[in-house]
Amino acid sequence: MSESSGEAVADVAAAAVASATEAAAGGWRRATGIAGVAIGVVAAGAAAGVALERLTVGRGIRRKARLVLDAAGPYGALRGTPGTAYAEDGTELYYEVDETDETGEINPIDGIDGIDGLDEAGSGGGTAARRRRLFGHRAPAAVTVVFCHGYCLNQDSWHFQRAALRGLVRTVHWDQRSHGRSGRGVAQVRDGAPVTIDELGGDLKAVLDAAVPEGPIVLVGHSMGGMTVMALADRFPELIRERVAAVALVGTSSGRLGEVNFGLPVAGVNAVRRVLPGVLRALGQRAELVEKGRRATADLFAGIIKRYSFASREVDPAVARFAERMIESTPIDVVAEYYPAFDDHDKTGALAHFAGVPVLVLAGTQDMVTPSEHSEAIAGLLPDAELVLVPDAGHLVMLEHPEVVTDRLADLLARAGAVPAAATVEGYGSTSSTAGPG
């Protein structure tokens, strides 16, 4: 981006502050347009000034994606046995369990008898074929894989990996506080307290106590979910030592997020960092009106999400829309509650608790939200970890190149003793024509 573009970004950031100030004084109708843009940027994990970029998706493509997904698309349709855990402050945390099934059948999706034919869902050529591909003639070990999602997403962001492992390995999928089907954070609503990463580590512990009270665990975390896993290790190192069989950290960071530039020039980044906390606070106080502005800027919002979620030019529009729907569902006041936690996040010291445990560290080479350099730094502190950098991949690598992520998770389970070393899960759904083995 040119210097003039950087100055323009700074201007937009300043305008966002002026808009928030005007809104606080009562001029919400005039402010909702630019407020909606700022929300979309933040929810996508970027920063307010990015809205100036020409990040648009053709209206026709978006309309087609909406029709396909909303009418019959399987993305996000996988459901398991529901359960509720309770955080330290009483927040209700929703989770689902997919049990192993020795019969070779799996739970139906919303009344549909089986999912073997849902190739686009990533479920592939049937349960028996997946079992042979993953396990050969051996049964999986008694391990539970727990998936932790990222900021402004929900448990469905692991759709392809869930489809591949469904019925073959016991898995737990949960929604972080104030996301998905989980309840609003009690401490946030009652006390106005911002969310902390340490708090999320405690939430994960509550889910494990409820859904996996015994037996070995494999922890998988994307972005904020990876930070949650690190916070768990920091707060409960004995749990890692005694029960965790393996860990996967996908597109995440152990700290220094304040140095991320989101692909912006220095002037733009600095301007955004100065104004964004105040903008979010102001917007969070008028959530209902802001959401109207957010809907009014839907096309720009979709372009921003695509820019900061994916790197491939040919991502399935339905997958892009699926990601958009997840991010859209996060209210602006929740976005505001979480945002301060990332600048404060530093769990570099907690990584030592994973020493001696099989670890997969995976990231897209073009991730602008948690750049791959952060994954390289994590792997540098865990010399026995497997580092996988996926070319032509952005922040939502598990949706953009699902077959690569699922394949590496299978290898991780092999290293943890869950599946044979020769396991592969290629063919469980690619959302880009450029997807490859990475």
Describe the fold and architecture.
This protein folds into 2 domains: 3-53 and 60-70 and 259-342, no CATH class; 78-257 and 345-415, Rossmann fold. The longest helix is centred in the N-terminal third of the chain and has 22 residues, at 3-24. Helix content is 46%, strand content 11%. Strands 1-2-4-3-5-6-7-8 form an 8-stranded mixed beta sheet, sandwiched between helices. With 438 residues, it is of the alpha/beta class. Helix 1 runs parallel beside helix 10 and helix 3 packs across helix 13.
Counting H and I runs of at least 4 residues, what is the number of helices? 17
| Share of helix, binned | 40-55%
Summing up helix and strand content along with how strands pair, one would put the structural category as alpha/beta
What CATH architecture of the largest domain do you see? 3-Layer(aba) Sandwich
Mean pLDDT score: 76
What proportion strand?
5-15%
Number of strands: 8
Identify the strand order in the major beta sheet: 1-2-4-3-5-6-7-8
* Distance separating the two termini: 28 Å
Oligomer: single chain
Major β-sheet profile: 8 strands, mixed
Query: What is the name of the CATH superfamily of the largest domain?
Result: Alpha/Beta hydrolase fold, catalytic domain
General form: globular
CATH topology (fold) name of the largest domain: Rossmann fold
Overall tally of domains:
2
Pattern of helices and strands: HHHEEHEHEHHEHHEHHHHHEHEHH
Q: What's the CATH first level of the largest domain?
A: Alpha Beta
Radius of gyration: 21 Å
